[in-house]
Amino acid sequence: MSYKDSAATGQLMALLESRYAMRVLWALRDGRAQTFRLLQDSVGGITPNTLNTRIKELRQAGLLNHGSEGYLLSSTGADLTRRLGELPTFASKWASSQARKAR
Fold it and tell me: Which residues contact 35 (CB under 8 A, 6 or more apart)?
């Protein structure tokens, strides 16, 4: 991996590690627009101030858009959530291997 690729990965990981960032993206993965209030309910436990901050960061990063019906993933955000959708399968395999090691 080149330095440029490594730096880009680090930047993306830093953004996604922000509190609730992944949950905001995951709440929008079905492609349906959500109003601020609906998004707040979908994420659960997030304060309005924190949600505003995450929305601003995700919009600046090009992962989120705001349309007439509410917040939506951009095409880049949708691509990211599709790729992250592979995590459950990976996690299941990983957990099984961890369980075998523990025996």
Answer: 69, 70, 71
For residues 5 and 35, the model is more confident at 35
72 touches 28 (CB < 8 A): yes
- In contact, 65 and 59? CB cutoff 8 Å: yes
Using CA atoms, how far apart are residues 58 and 53, in angstroms rounded to an integer?
9
**61's tokens:** 């990063």
| Residue 45 pLDDT greater than 90, yes or no | yes
d(CA 83, CA 73) in angstroms, rounded, equals: 14
Task: Say which residue the tokens 């989120």 belong to.
Answer: 64
Q: What is the DSSP string of 57-95?
A: HHHHTTSEEEETTEEEE-HHHHHHHHHHTTHHHHHHHHH
pTM: 0.84
